[in-house]
Amino acid sequence: MKRRAYIVIVFFAMVCMALSASAQKRSNLVMGNDKLTLRIDMRSSKTEVDSLLKKAGLKGANAAAILKGDFTALQKDGWTMAAKRGNIVEFDRPLENLNKNPQTQPYLITTKIDKDDDGSPGYPADVTYGINNFAKVTVHELPSGLTRFFLPGYLQNRRALLSGNFNNWSTLKGIMAKTDSGWIADVKLKPGKYEYKFIVDGHWINDRYNNLVADHDNNSIYFRYNYTFRLNGYANAHKIILAGSFNSWDANSIIMEKNGGGWQKQLYLHDGTQAYRFLVDGKWITDPANPNKMQGEDGLTNSILNLGETVVFKLDGYTDAKKVQVAGSFNNWEHGKIPLVKTKTGWAVSLIIPPGNYGYKFIVDDNWMTDPKNPRNMVEGGVVNSYISVKPNYTFKLSGFNNAKSVHLAGSFNNFDEFGYTLAFDGKEWTVNVNLKPGKQLYKFIVDGKWMIDPGNKLYENNQYNSGNSVLWIE
């Protein structure tokens, strides 16, 4: 009996030692106190460290080199060694430094934005600007370009999901990975406004550390930034405020942050023409780094920022004309605002226009005309205009119908307008490019005045006329 008891005691001691060694082997990623901590156990396998580096959003880091004590890749990526205890090495990185938003250069001209479009599930709402407000940072951008959502705690729960308008509020996708301090999920997002919630063991909860909440259903709101306003110098200034057309010139809401040799503020800013100024200790100034300026209605000079895609408008001929201009829905059809420059063969101008679908016309010596080189048209206010899609994400195609005189496209994206968008024939098929918001789109072709569903698309649904609409899903 004594011998048996001794064997049991020895076996138990060996198990405790094994468990102790296992517990000490702690390679993990912890998020808290507004920083990210990377803890590496130098006894870990290369596979374990590779998996950890992937979670941390590190690219190009060599696990084998790190396990040999070469931390160059970590240091280049902005990580600082915080502690070294035995086999455990810890690196820290502030969450606020993970937002890598490139500075976009000012452009020359673009359009105004409709502020009333609330967007749709899976698509950033069409707001003019946005700034995040966290009690503790729980959402941040990784160097890889992914956005990481963090749900602290809930370690006793079995399952956590991330659901939002970026995945159509799915209850199946967005599975979060469990860490030592909570749950994480990485999502690829474009700049814009997003609503989200967490689903913990079937229960919907919002982000308790996020102070931005939607009025309609208590969803948490996150803005993925795309622009940084910078003002160099003014080291002795006490307070600098940013105000512009995007926030209705509110001189209290956007306070600049001191950073190194100047001041800066990151935010989400919608494509479009934005006028802005800085208020330095009560005195308005324009942006000294931006040469584009214009006098405002209040008599003060504003800096002008334009964000969007470059579009070249060309009109061949008309070399005897005194002036040629262009106007369209991208500038609210304002006459006299956008002159073309005379070239050897005609006239041209490069504009910055946000992604979308637009009508336009040239104005030659005050005579309005459609673009003679553009076979695609649309109707606005009962008037036929030339049609252009900026940064299109889908091409509608209709094969056959070689003898048709006209083919048009109408759908939920243009309120099923009878004229729709004109398709052009290339000898084999009719085509038109369109910029569509993600989600479900309904459409039909109109061939010589006759409405028809898309014969090349098997997806369709019935409508109130029992004639059906073709269905298209945009990711």
UniProtKB/TrEMBL annotation:
What is the recorded name of this protein? AMP-activated protein kinase glycogen-binding domain-containing protein
Q: Which UniProt keywords apply?
A: Signal
Signal peptide residues on this chain, from the entry's feature table: 1-23
Entry annotated with the keyword RNA-binding: no
Task: Classify the source by domain of life.
Answer: Bacteria
Q: Which residues form the AMP-activated protein kinase glycogen-binding domain?
A: 159-219, 236-306, 320-393, 403-469
Keyword field contains Signal:
yes
Q: What is the organism of origin for this protein? A: Mucilaginibacter rubeus
Per the similarity annotation, which family is this?
Answer: Belongs to the 5'-AMP-activated protein kinase beta subunit family.
